Amino acid sequence: MSGRITVIGNVNVDFVLKVPRLPLAGETLPGTGFFRASGGKGANQAVAAARLGADVTFIGRVGDDDLGASMVRGLAAEGIDVSRVRVDPASHTGTALIMVEDSGQNSIVLASGANLSVGPGDLAEHRDVLSRSDALLLQQEMRIETVAAAIRLGKEAGCRVILDPAPVQTTIPNLWREPDVVSPNETEALALVPGADTSSVAGALACADRIREAGVGYVALKLGDRGCVISGPEGRTHVPAFAVAAVDTTAAGDAFTAGLAVALCEGLGQNQAGSFANACGALAATEYGAQPSLPMRARVQELLARGLT
User: Fold this and answer.
1) CA dihedral 277, 13, 69, 43 (to 10 degrees)
2) Rounded to whole angstroms, how far apart are CA atoms 161 and 152?
3) What are the contacts of 264-268 at 24+ separation with CB within 8 A?
4) How many helices (H) and strands (E) does the chain have?
5) CATH number of the domain at 4-21+32-306, please?
6) Kindly report the CA angle at 140 between 252 and 230, in degrees rounded to 5?
7) Labelling 114: which of 54, 83, 92, 232 has CA 20 to 30 A away?
């Protein structure tokens, strides 16, 4: 049983350009490909969790346009409950322009649109679904005061609150200390713990410990091709990465965090949860696009069975 997961987050349409490298200021650079894909960290994590077998409800907002309607249909096609997605007639659906280098690294420009119209006062109507959820999954591509209200509402409802603190926002200092689980990448971890050094596994473990000591119960720090480190109730551990041929890291972090949420809902221990999340993130990096890259459960199980080599 993969659990019941509610995701409060953003919905974006991604316009993806493949480029040999990022252009310099004022430079026109020929691209090598283009495609459109469904994205947004919130929607990505909802789709990832659903493909891993979770019973997922998504709470968010789209514009009153064809892109928004298409995005909602896509979420529903994944088996996600979209009955709590609202339409904002005064704004456009969130959009992102993503440039992906040949190396697989990416650069993103975001126009949030309707995502920013979700305010703290809009969440109370969803208290009932949170009370029936095992976990609430949050990110920071919405208004930060809405994220803060969602954290409080989730904890009041008694479900495990998991925060992916991306992108880092500092408007409400120390908000990241309030969730039960925090899953930052290295850049975000260094913003949460100024002066930390994650260049070594030992340094990353020390950084995760400092985040946990600040009040977080469980910290999973993503290290890309070095795997992850976890500081939690079972102690601290480094979980190595799986060897894959990465082509696009756009949604790898979202796949990791969704995988972590599913693993925790299933009651897996720290090492198993870290390996499961690592496998999800690794597989997402082997395909282009955000949601198109998110793996099904069977592929994750195959990678786990194959092992690290």
Assistant:
1) 20
2) 9
3) 264/135, 264/160, 264/162, 264/181, 264/218, 265/1, 265/2, 265/3, 265/4, 265/5, 265/54, 265/134, 265/135, 265/160, 266/1, 266/2, 266/3
4) 9, 13
5) 3.40.1190.20
6) 55
7) 54
The residue whose two tokens read 């979700």 is 118
| 128 is known as an active-site residue | no
Nearest to 181 by CA among 18, 45, 20, 14: 45
The one catalytic residue among 14, 164, 248, 254: 254
Strand pairing report for 228-232 and 218-222: antiparallel
CB 252 within 8 A of CB 295: no
Mind listing the pLDDT tens digit of every residue in the chain (309 residues)?
Answer: 579 999 999 999 989 899 999 889 999 999 999 989 898 999 999 999 999 999 999 999 999 999 999 999 999 999 999 999 999 999 999 998 989 898 878 888 889 999 999 999 999 999 999 999 999 999 999 999 999 999 999 999 999 999 999 998 888 888 999 999 999 999 999 999 999 999 999 999 999 999 999 999 999 999 999 999 999 999 999 999 999 999 888 899 999 999 999 999 999 999 999 999 999 999 999 998 889 899 999 999 999 999 875
Tell which residue, 55, 64, 112, 110, has the closest CA to residue 86. Answer: 64
